[in-house]
Write the structure tokens for this entry.
Amino acid sequence: MSYSGRTEYHSHWEDGHDSDVALQPLEPEQGSHVYQVVAQGPDRTEPSQAVPLNIKRPWKPGFFSSFPVLGILSAVLGVAFTGLAIALIRSCDKLETSDWTFPYQPSVLLAATSAISNALLATAFSSGAGVYFWRQAVKGHKLTDLHYNWHGGQGPTGALTSLVHFKAVHVSLVCLFVSLTAIVRGPLFQQSLRVETDVHWTKGNFSFPIARTVDSSWGGRVSSNVANVIYSTNFSSVVAGFHNREAMTVPSVPCDNCTVSVEGFGFYAECSTSRTPFNMTQHFRNHIDLFSVNITVPVSEEHAPADLTVSVRRKLTQECVGLLQVEVCRVKPATLRYDIELDNGVVTLVHDSWRDDGRLAPVTLLSPSAGGGTLGALHHYAETTFKSTFNTKKDATSGLWDYDTTGTLGSIYLAGDDARGCAAYFGKDNPMDEIINTLRAIAFRMALKAGALEGESGLQLVPYSTRLVRTIYAADYITLSVAVTFSILATVVTLTVFWGWLALGRTVSLSPLELGVAFSPNNGAFVGFDGNSSPDDMAEFYKKRDDEPEVQYGVSQSTGYLGMHEQTQTARPRRGQEL
């Protein structure tokens, strides 16, 4: 409507009365025409609230006039948050988990950056989809094409529907890729930084206190009666520590979590096995040795090396006639190579068996008969701990086998008892290894004790390798590359739907106000607004009016059509109502 210097009228209905409404010209702004509605008729003599009519904005295609600020800014910020996630992953790579001091774990922060990036990308795509719709509308399309141009940007289902109809291919493919990126981005970024165990080995040398030998009097003193040995204070503390399972500690060692080999006092064994027959059907009235453990010190010359002899005799099966196994081991003092682990000053033998220690050189210890208190103390301890017998004889009255036992090993290693058959048997479990391993453990504790007492003379320069186990964050750069590729490609393809925005005369959206005025400019609720009106300006204008129109989607009471009508003249559609 243009201003021509005369008063124009249009019909106005209110309360069922017709009246003419005069449009009084006002001072127009540059590039626009503004009017005031004046009611003329029997019921309207005063001008109504001033409303703008035919607000015309010039169509200004160009960079600044139609620049999609929100969409482009969202895309840029989405890339920025992707960069933030990359920086977070790189800064955490190889970092110990204990060194992370931020209140939230990296996985939580990565989830947050991914969620924000997805939200920003969705905002950018929504803005771009609006640009795409209006750019296609400017070119001219069938109404169904306009529908699919909109539908293709409404999520995966809309995009797939449009593609099935070969419509809006560009925006539909972009919508699908953006949706896929929103699904995979978070898991990929979180998988790019994982927690793993890092094992690091270092090598060096340090001084370790351990004695290669001990003298013949270290363990105790033989009394005038050779059968008695008085333990030394050092040997007593060693035995007490073994029985109490006290940790072996060397606090002065600066190596934590190290595996080393040291040379120390100990025992090795030379063993032989033989068989001796038994027949319980012939000698059932006599005592029969089914099991026995004996520990002795062979008599030697005054200054000759001495050792311990351990013999174990066992009935292995339930048979009444067979062979008893007899195993004899000579346990000899020597310098051994022990493999040990050190962790915060606590010493642990790597191997559980004496068979895994390396024999280096024999050690001379005098026998108790020659005044050797060390071997005497070891013999006394072993004999009182392990000596055991398990004899049997058939009771003439009951006909059952009766037992006579000493010590504990016989009862501990008993495999079965058939009192009416051929008496007890002891299976394949052999106490020999237990006895030698016990002597080995005590000897190793003796070596540590003696080395600590000797001071610098008891130190060994030991090469070591330390195994440092750390829990660290580790970056998976391949997975990170995939995540970044998805993020960047999603941003790039989203920006392609903005193509052509320079040809639009204003910033655009898919607001219902903008669509409504585009399909029905200067009509109905959009009187005074043309198709180039900004939805923000329209909304701002309506909010300032005292009589802002209220609309409802329903059935018009005057026409009976379903649509968007004035609320006071609209009813809700009923179930089954034909419209």
